[in-house]
Write a structure and sequence with these properties.
Blueprint (H helix, E strand, L loop, with lengths): L1 H10 L3 H9 L3 H6 L1 H32 L6
Length: 71
């Protein structure tokens, strides 16, 4: 059942949930999926870093568009 849920989450574009399902499986199953899990975790980290960079860029752009305070 967990493997089916992991596949379903993956088909829905829910990589984190898919990884969580596989990580909750017995060690023998996790060992078989070890390479895939490693790549999936790397993708999740890259996606998170991209989100942080995008938010930072938007903040910088927003600050640039504000008028400078007069002293």
């Amino acid at each position: 059942a967990k493997l089916a849920r992991a596949e379903f989450h993956l088909q829905q574009g829910e990589l984190l949930q898919s990884v969580q399902e596989l990580e909750s499986m017995p060690p023998a199953v996790r060992e078989v999926a070890q390479d895939w899990l490693k790549e999936a975790r790397a993708r999740l980290l890259a996606d998170q870093a991209t989100s942080v960079l995008e938010a930072h860029a938007l903040t910088l752009i927003s600050n640039l568009s504000k008028p400078a305070n007069s002293a």
